Task: inverse folding
């Protein structure tokens, strides 16, 4: 039995590593009296847009809100179809339903687990309005292919980038080839605040203006309203995020270094390892292996005190109650999504892991592989 216990997140360690800066930023907000739509939000929006090399970023209440507010801002609603994948976090499709549109699922590429861009065109109908690629596990979807199809058919592209802040393609940045990119800052994401948060990142001035209104009761200025909602990123979270954003590249580099260690150690095992597209910067929001004996591996690791979780064990079209809202459509088979749901296991992956913990994970996985019958 390994003596080292390994958790799945390093939130408290991360805080301790930048405690002075975080505490100072929080105190500044407390002393300023500006908690909502204040200067710290403005600063973070400027910081995030600069980081993404886009014109604008608008802070909202969550990644889910970022998605459906982006749909609303682009005029996507009832009667419209939105193409995405079903092997993603539920919120990707949920946001389509919240907007009142119909989700259309195509399968993923079994190697990258991202949307199979070869399947998109067959899913397009006169009702199709947009494509939503997800940069799953921290690796960019093939945005060049997505953007080309969108241009040819006059569709919007909204990136679900809840998992890949800091990732890049070989010859494109995230946020560069879309109408809007949606980020989530819930604590377990690579850039996480101390609660819920999200943002819409875009080069489009019209989208920016609409999201700014929609998130604040449809109010462009005091006492003037059109229909909107309440979905703002508060200044405490924004202040925390500005501090953390400065560390993000370093943290992502650390994730990549641990992933390289895992790759090397697991090369000879029976596991299917994460596939990194050549030239892409995969930032390993999650390090996901696949095996037909997933439950056995998970139980084995957990018994050794190593936390391994599943992302995501049930594809969206197999969730109870599916389909919601305006319904959904499946184009072709979703075989790879279903197979992946049955096989995926996420190993501990966060920048604050110690060398000893990484070693414990490696030893656990290798020991299971030796003991289990393949
Ligand atoms: C986390 C996540 C979301 C939702 O973000 P929240 O901030 O939790 O609302 C959407 N899509 C994907 C792929 C996610 O991982």
Result:
């Amino acid at each position: 039995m390994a003596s080292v216990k390994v958790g799945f997140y390093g939130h408290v360690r991360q805080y301790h590593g930048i405690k002075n800066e975080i505490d100072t930023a929080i105190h500044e907000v407390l002393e300023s009296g500006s908690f909502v739509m204040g200067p710290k939000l403005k600063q973070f929006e400027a910081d995030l847009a600069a980081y993404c090399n886009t014109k604008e970023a608008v802070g909202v209440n969550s990644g889910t809100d970022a998605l459906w507010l982006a749909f609303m801002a682009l005029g996507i609603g009832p009667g419209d179809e939105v193409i995405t994948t079903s092997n993603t976090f539920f919120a990707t499709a949920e946001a389509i339903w919240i907007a009142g549109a119909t989700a259309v699922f195509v399968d993923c590429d079994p190697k990258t687990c991202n949307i199979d861009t070869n399947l998109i065109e067959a899913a397009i109908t006169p009702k199709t309005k947009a494509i939503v690629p997800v940069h799953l596990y921290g690796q960019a979807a093939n945005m060049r292919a997505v953007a080309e199809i969108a241009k040819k058919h006059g569709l919007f592209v909204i990136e679900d980038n809840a998992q890949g802040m800091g990732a890049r393609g070989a010859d494109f940045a995230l946020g560069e080839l879309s109408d809007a990119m949606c980020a989530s800052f819930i604590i377990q994401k690579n850039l996480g605040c101390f609660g819920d948060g999200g943002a819409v990142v875009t080069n489009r001035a019209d989208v920016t203006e609409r999201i700014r209104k929609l998130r604040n009761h449809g109010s462009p200025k005091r006492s003037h309203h059109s229909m909107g909602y309440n979905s703002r990123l508060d200044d405490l979270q924004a202040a925390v995020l500005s501090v953390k954003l400065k560390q993000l590249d370093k943290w992502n580099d650390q994730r990549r270094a641990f992933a390289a260690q895992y790759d090397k150690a697991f090369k000879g095992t029976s596991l299917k390892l994460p596939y990194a597209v050549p030239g892409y910067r995969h930032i390993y929001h999650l390090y996901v292996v696949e095996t037909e004996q997933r439950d056995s591996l998970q139980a084995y690791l957990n018994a050794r005190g190593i936390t391994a979780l599943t992302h995501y064990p049930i594809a969206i079209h197999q969730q109870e109650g599916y389909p919601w809202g305006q319904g959904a459509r499946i184009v072709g088979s979703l075989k790879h999504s279903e197979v992946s749901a049955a096989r995926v296991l996420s190993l501990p992956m966060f920048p604050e892991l110690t060398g000893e913990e990484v070693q414990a994970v490696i030893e656990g996985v290798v020991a299971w592989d030796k003991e289990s019958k393949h």
Notes: The longest strand covers residues 56-60. The beta strands are 56-60, 81-85, 102-106, 128-131, 156-160, 180-184, 198-202, 287-290, 328-330, 344-347. Residues 248-266 form the longest helix (19 residues).
